[in-house]
Write a structure and sequence with these properties.
This protein is an alpha+beta fold. It has helices at about 10-25, 30-95, 140-145, and strands at about 100, 105-115, 125-130, 135, 155-165. It is elongated, with a radius of gyration of 35 Å. The protein has a three-stranded antiparallel β-sheet with strand order 1-2-5. The chain contains three helices and five strands. The model has no long low-confidence stretch (mean pLDDT about 85). Strand 1 (about 100) and strand 2 (about 105-115) form a beta hairpin. It folds into two domains: about 1-95; about 100-165, no CATH class.
């Protein structure tokens, strides 16, 4: 008997032993019985190792997911702190002019605009259809408002942000 049995070899050995036994009135020889026991044992060992590997991979996937969530939480926290600091610095820069030199850094302001849509905005001309809901397409709304088209339920808000170079 080969020691390199696959998981499926056991099924084939069982079929062969049963076939032999039916030819010999249900009698299974000691040699065939030993072959069957060895195949079953190796099959169970291989299944155990394979299942262990599956569990290892599942644990890895769970660990990777937890790590992604941990990194995302750190990223969100850093973004929030960054926004907070920039909001704190913006009035200072606005008060002292468009550009302020601080050591090797230059603080400045920049104009931007953002689309603000009302709750429940659902103009199909300015929305992307997502199953069971409409998602406002802010770029399309912004282009229309800038072109002078009134979009009911949406406004274009001018903003000023801080730049650090």
């Amino acid at each position: 008997m080969s020691t390199d049995l696959t998981l499926y070899d056991c099924d084939e050995i069982i079929r062969l032993v049963e076939e032999k036994a039916s030819e010999e009135d249900g009698v299974v020889s000691d040699e065939d019985m030993q072959l069957l026991v060895d195949a079953q044992t190796k099959s169970i060992e291989k299944l155990g190792k394979l299942i262990g590997y599956v569990k290892h991979l599942e644990a890895f996937v769970d660990s990777a997911k937890a790590e992604r969530e941990r990194i995302k939480a750190r990223e969100d926290s850093a973004k929030n702190r960054l926004e907070s600091i920039k909001k704190y610095l913006l009035p200072y820069v606005q008060h002292h002019g468009k550009k302020v030199q601080v050591g090797t850094f230059t603080l400045g302001t920049r104009k931007s605009s953002a689309v603000i849509v009302a709750d429940g905005f659902n103009n199909p001309m300015y929305c992307t259809v997502i199953p069971e809901s409409l998602q406002p397409d802010k770029n399309k709304i912004k282009e229309s408002i800038k072109a002078g088209i009134e979009v009911k339920g949406a406004i274009l808000e001018e903003r000023e942000g801080l730049t650090i170079r």
